[in-house]
Amino acid sequence: MKPNPWQYVGYQFGRVLPPSMRDWVEKDLVGNGAQARYLIRFTLPVIPLLCLFLLVPGPLWIGLAMMALLFIPLVYFAIALMNVYRRHRLLVHDLDPQLLNANTQRKIDRTREEYERRHGRLD
Description:
This protein has helices at 5-12, 22-30, 34-43, 46-50, 60-80, 82-92, 99-118.
């Protein structure tokens, strides 16, 4: 079940969705493209505000430089705190925070099985 537009906007601002939407929340936070969605949600709302720097009198590069001085650290910290935020969102929706590590563990297991199969350690 997908959230309606009001629920989706509330979800973007941190509201908890009803338990009937846990599958959607899980897919949103740990499914394919979850990291890209997180970065887009975190950075896209800031861009219009940063564009106000283009109204500063002077050469264009000054406004762009001021935008970059704020945007680059924003993206850096968004990436650094991505797993912390996603883990928190899983917890508030009563989902297992270990879901974040599930995909990584599956890849590790697949690689190990492939290695053992290739080198004769697995029947």
